[in-house]
Amino acid sequence: MTKSVGIDGCKSGWFFFQKEGEEITFGVEESISNLCDSLPDNSKVCIDIPIGLIDQGSAGRVCDVEARKLLGRAKASSVFPAPCRSVLQARNYEDAKALSVQAIGKKLSKQAYAITPKIREVDEFLRNRNRKVSIREVHPEVCFWALNGRSALVTKKKKSDGFEQRMALLERMFPNARNLVSEALDAYPRKSVARDDVLDALVALVVACAPGEALQTVPASPVADSEGLPMEIVFTEPTT
């Protein structure tokens, strides 16, 4: 039986929720290859990491630009520009900034640089492996925007009110969402898996579980990067 999987990066590697039949389980894998290689063929994976990178040009990825517009001014900053591909080879932050300026005329933010190792890991996996599973990019705040009637949640998920707002949306999709989140938080220390890592992986699972015809993308007609990887952000909306 195939599985649906929602993944977010965490300090220990990759935190995930997976659904097989009616059962939802969770765990942490050190590498994306170990995680994906363990899945049955044709499983559906949604991951909170940029997939598909530009090589040059100052405009950036269209999916990032359009996602910021969807979320509006109050939440646009949650979608930061993905780095260009050359930055993945940087030895340090100063090197990354220089490579970014050379390729796209802009410096790389520290936030983007911090997740460069995970972007590189996923990029190399997608480019160099015969993939037996479908792996698509999601952005948690775009997912919550869609689940909230196309209205961005301006609260911060690290705050209690923001956490509760997002939990309420997740409980509409998975009635046992609160128990799943609590069990995951009890299973791992915060130095390994943060609370928002768990929330983000679970909302990614919502998208992974949606049937193909219920999936939408930002932009509506994605383009591929120079390696053939689609530059898109996938989301789904409630059916009722």
Automatic annotation (TrEMBL):
<dbReference type="Pfam" id="PF04250">
    <property type="entry name" value="DUF429"/>
</dbReference>
<dbReference type="InterPro" id="IPR007362">
    <property type="entry name" value="DUF429"/>
</dbReference>
<protein>
    <submittedName>
        <fullName>DUF429 domain-containing protein</fullName>
    </submittedName>
</protein>
